[in-house]
């Protein structure tokens, strides 16, 4: 059973609707009893890093999440800020992250030059991802591999082997990460049409 973590942030119903269209069972988990039954976990998130960490902590779900992911090795997919929470820390705030994948969340470097106007933040719109390491999460995507993004920060991994895809906005940055059973994506698959559905289906099969 796929559990979508409900700690008060993220497009939870949108993920549930995608899995309903795919005929894949999922449940929205707002308590540890429901979450503890998960065979796969989706950790969504939007907004600021510190606020998201605060919401996760006060939800009471953090200890259960840590146990499932770190001890039982249940596959987890962090989405947008849900991915950023997996880092050690963020330039956006002072809270410690989950520390599931070593790295720091950095603000997108976007200096203007004489020839190019400074690009606006947040980065919002469709971007093509470029795989850099093999991952079952990326199987069967269409040739363009385009996904919808909305963010101003990205996950800078300490270990390059944890990076599975990159994209560019002014400069190249990491957008998909993976270490063992832990996956993170900066894009919004629930808003990315066919590629988003393929990716969520792939995660259900991991």
Question: What's the short version?
Answer:
The protein is α/β, with parallel strands linked by helices and 206 residues long. 25% of the residues lie in helices and 30% in strands.
* H and E string: EHEHEHHEHEEEEEEEEEH
Q: Strands of the biggest beta sheet: in what spatial order?
A: 2-1-3-4-13-12-11-8
Tally of extended strands?
A: 13
The helix-and-strand class reads alpha/beta
Q: How many helical stretches? A: 6
Envelope shape: globular
| Major sheet characteristics | 8 strands, mixed
Helix content: 25-40%
Terminal CA distance: 12 Å
The low-confidence parts are none
β-strand percent reads 25-35%
Average predicted confidence as pLDDT: 93
Computed over alpha carbons, the radius of gyration is: 16 Å
Q: How would you characterize the overall build of this protein?
A:
The chain is an alpha/beta fold. 25% of the residues lie in helices and 30% in strands. It has six helices and 13 strands. The strands form three sheets. Strands 2-1-3-4-13-12-11-8 form an eight-stranded mixed sheet. A three-stranded mixed sheet has the order 5-6-10, with no helix packed on it. The chain has a two-stranded antiparallel ribbon with strand order 7-9. A hairpin with a 1-residue loop joins strand 11 and strand 12. The longest helix has 13 residues. 42% of the residues are buried. The mean pLDDT is 93.
């Amino acid at each position: 059973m796929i559990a979508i973590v409900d700690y008060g942030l993220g497009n939870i119903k949108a993920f549930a609707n995608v899995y309903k269209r795919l005929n894949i069972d999922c449940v929205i988990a707002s308590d540890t009893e429901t979450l503890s039954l998960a065979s796969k976990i989706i950790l969504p998130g939007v907004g600021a890093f510190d606020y998201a960490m605060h919401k996760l902590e006060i939800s009471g779900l953090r200890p259960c999440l840590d146990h499932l992911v770190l001890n039982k090795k249940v596959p987890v997919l962090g989405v947008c800020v849900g991915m950023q929470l997996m880092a050690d820390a963020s330039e956006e705030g002072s809270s410690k992250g989950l520390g599931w994948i070593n790295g720091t969340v950095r603000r997108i470097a976007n200096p203007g030059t004489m020839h190019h106007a400074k690009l606006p933040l947040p980065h919002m719109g469709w971007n093509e991802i470029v795989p850099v390491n093999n991952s079952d999460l990326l199987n069967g995507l269409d040739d363009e591999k385009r996904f919808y993004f909305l963010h101003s920060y990205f996950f800078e991994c300490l270990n390059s082997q944890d990076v599975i895809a990159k994209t560019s906005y002014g400069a190249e940055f990491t957008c998909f990460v993976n270490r063992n059973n832990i996956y993170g994506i900066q894009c919004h698959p629930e808003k990315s049409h066919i590629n988003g559905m393929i990716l969520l289906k792939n995660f259900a099969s991991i």
